Amino acid sequence: MGSNRHPRATVHHFAEPFTFETPFMGHSGTIPELYVAYEVWGDRRNPAVLIGHALSQNTHATDLEHPDDDRKSWWSSMVGPGRVIDTNRFYVICINMLGGCGGSSGPATIDPDTGRPFGLNFPIVTVGDMVRSQKRLLDALGIERLYAVIGGSLGGYQALEWAIMYPDFVERIVPLGAAGCTNQFMIMTNRVQIDAIQMDCNYNHGNYNDKDDSLTGLAIARMVGFTTFISPITMERKFAKYHESQREPIRDSDFHEQMFHEAEDYLRRVSGPFSKIFDANSMVYLLQTWNHFDLAKKYGSLAQAFRDVQAKTLMICATGDNLFPPYLSEDVYKAMQVNDKPARVLLIDEEYGHDFFLIPDIIFEKISPPLKEFLDE
Questions:
Q1: Quick check: 246 pLDDT over 80?
Q2: Chain center to CA of 47
């Protein structure tokens, strides 16, 4: 089974049970012990900032030894010395989400009762479960208050739940490319990814061979996901220039066929490595977590969800985001306005797509200045 745990992550072991929000298959939805993986940067005496990562990332949000190398970490443009989330100013913590495969408890974790991975016997994971597991770690680390919770995509979901579940603990939140619910387009594309994994003949109902860390279904799921992360305009700009110049077909030894477009080859190149480092069951679980996220359903309405929130809120959205169109951020803003909460929406005019918050040029030019102003308030 794949693992995207970074070698610098620290794993905290809680020997006591952890109970999930949703009962599972007639069981209590409890695991006998909990593992939470994390990394920290900066001085412990500084205000604490929690980073929530997106589905495919891990704890290594920044690499202080290679601050300008995006291949070494996933958010160095945002986090580090002199960056907008300044590790000289803040005590920065990035925690691997529950249900993933980056060191925190998930389907690939060994069940102490059986000596085998939990697999599909792992309880259903909600965003609320993720936040409660993170709170347990912060309590163990002696963190008494969070200056900010900042995260993109699924990490943005966590930021919203942090403000709702622990209103006295969080001073401000910054969800990027997120919303109060998952829209229908995303639910459908996530379902295609889940089916691609589970219909793989080697998946074996989640009991696949842990010595074979590559499943074709997982690679196909990642291809589907990638086509939703960038906008059609970005796709044209990225690949159309190859269309006329490419004469000879590209031979793909893994799939035993010929491809005539650079875009096809690119999908294969980005999905192959991912399927070797990420656990297929974790992918299924996290996509389901994404699909089931709906604050209005959980709390009765969006307005009811944010009734007790005390944190200042900055929703950051983008015009080119196919998965979280700006109107979804506006819905969160309106729900907070109903409750007279200090909230605002920053709409970024960009054409990249859902992953806008990971692109260095967009971060430096359009996100960092207003975010710094918000953190300075």
A1: no
A2: 23
- 330 and 200 fall within a common domain: no
CATH number at residue 367: 3.40.50.1820
Q: What pTM did the predictor assign? A: 0.92
Structural domain that includes position 256: 193-277
> Would residue 294 show up in a list of annotated catalytic residues for this protein?
no
Alpha helices in 32-183 (DSSP H): 127-141, 154-165
Residue 43 lies in a domain: yes
Strand, helix or coil at 99?
coil
Number of domains the chain is built from: 2
Contact predicate 77/70, CB 8 Å: yes
- The active-site residue out of 6, 53, 60, 354 is 354
Is residue 140 situated within a structural domain?
yes
The answer to whether 153 is a known catalytic residue is yes
Q: Are residues 370 and 224 in the same domain?
A: no
239 assigned to some structural domain: yes
| Catalytic residue (one of 231, 321, 329, 355) | 321
Q: Active site includes 329?
A: no
Q: What would the two tokens of residue 219 be?
A: 């690679």
Tens digits of residue pLDDT in 252-269: 555 555 555 777 778 888
In a domain, 4, yes or no: no
Q: Which of 73, 77, 133, 153 is catalytic?
A: 153
Q: How many Å apart are CA 174 and CA 284, to the nearest integer? A: 26
Hey, what long-range contacts does 139-143 have (CB within 8 A, 24 or more apart)?
140/12, 140/14, 141/93, 143/48, 143/93
Q: Do 65 and 211 lie in a common domain?
A: no
